[in-house]
Design goal:
Blueprint lengths: L2 E9 L10 E9 L7 E8 L2 E8 L5 E9 L1 H10 L3 E11 L5 E7 L7 E6 L13 E4 L8 H6 L12
Antiparallel strand pairs: 1-5, 1-8, 1-9, 2-3, 2-6, 3-4, 4-5, 6-7, 7-8
Length: 162
């Protein structure tokens, strides 16, 4: 089984920007509205496209399967079959010799939200937490992309954005 081990945090200031090695625009949409056993996503990263299936559980470790698909098919799926969409710029920041922060700067209906994720080789893998990280979001479903696609951040009450 393919396993993704990932931790997610709020970003509280812009000090990370001077460390970005590269960035890519992403558009993604979900083929399932209700959260059942899995979320099914189509993602377009520049001209690369993938179909992704993730176990619909919260936490740092979950099953994940990803398959390359033609970019034109991804654009068609995003335009016709997806029930929720996200636009973002993903920035990459080194986090040590073999780790990298993926910092998602959301656009459109989720503009203003910036979240950092780090993929780890083990659940108990130690990593340095830069000072620009805020609180951890790993265990909170409302900060997951699938939820944000269906319930955009800019429509949340102010009290829920903290």
């Amino acid at each position: 089984m393919a396993l993704e081990i990932e931790r997610k945090f709020r970003v509280i200031h812009d000090a990370w920007r001077s460390h970005v090695t590269h960035s890519v625009e992403m558009r993604q949409g979900y083929l399932t509205q209700e959260v059942g056993k899995a979320s099914v996503r189509v993602r377009l990263e520049g001209e690369q496209a993938n179909l992704n299936i993730k176990a619909a559980v919260t936490g740092s470790a979950r099953a994940e399967y990803e398959y390359a698909i033609p970019a034109d098919e991804a654009r068609e799926l995003l335009a016709t079959l997806c029930v929720g969409r996200i636009e973002k710029i993903r920035h990459y920041v080194p986090a040590g010799p073999d780790l990298s922060w993926e910092i998602d700067e959301f656009l459109s209906d989720n503009a203003g939200l910036i979240v950092a994720e780090i993929e780890l080789p083990r659940v108990d893998q130690p990593f340095d937490k830069p000072q620009w990280l805020g609180r951890e979001l790993t265990e909170e479903r409302r900060w997951y992309n699938h939820y944000l696609a269906l319930h955009p951040y800019n429509r949340w009450p102010d009290a829920d954005r903290a």
